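Exercise: predict the structure of this protein bound to adenine.
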Amino acid sequence: MGVEKKMSKPRFDVISIFPEYLAPLRLSLVGKAQENGLIEIGVRDLRDFAEGLHKSVDDTPYGGGAGMVMSPEPWARAIDEAAAGKEGSHELIILTPAGKKFDQGMAYELATKEHLIFACGRYEGIDYRVTEHYALQPDFTVREISIGDYVLNGGEVAALVILESIIRLIPGVIGNPASLDEESHSLVGEDEEQLVEYPSYTKPSEWRGLAVPSVLLSGNHGEIARWRAAQSEIRTKKLQK
Ligand code: ADE
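Solution:
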């Protein structure tokens, strides 16, 4: 299932001190989606919004402790500029290992939004008043999101992961939308059991002594569908062990 709601062209803004980290957004399906005018992506260098000779974006933490904390003002300037570029409401996504765990259900939800702004923090994170400030703005929704229980050096890779999973759900981005229905993790309905995808095979029918399961060569579509459903169950059960 794609995202069917009628909407204006979705826009994605990313703010980072390493904008080059976001270069892959120019490649593959996400790059094509921009070229084809299906989506817009903007990348901003946080440092462009910093002041002073050293364009500093961080400082020592109040209360002490190791590392540095990103200062709020450069973030607010960058976020305000990104917000001014798109009418309507904005979802501010702050990438942090302390956020809500990202999953396919969240991808579907975010794929219905018209403007997402990704704040890729580094070091010990962004001054928490940035979250508090935007949570108070009526035209903003703030979400702190983690892509998993591990610590990255910054939010850039997390933003890439989330963007790729959202953008492929936008109508027109994937050539064959039927593949969205069949793939792993597409069964995210509340009552439906979440199943992973069955294994896939292509030519040659025999490779390094291994044959493709004969049912797939049978031409019997009912049998094939039953076999695939059973394989999905088996694979899903194995993951739960
Ligand atoms: N920044 C550092 N680690 C992260 C994670 N696991 N998810 C999102 N942002 C992060």
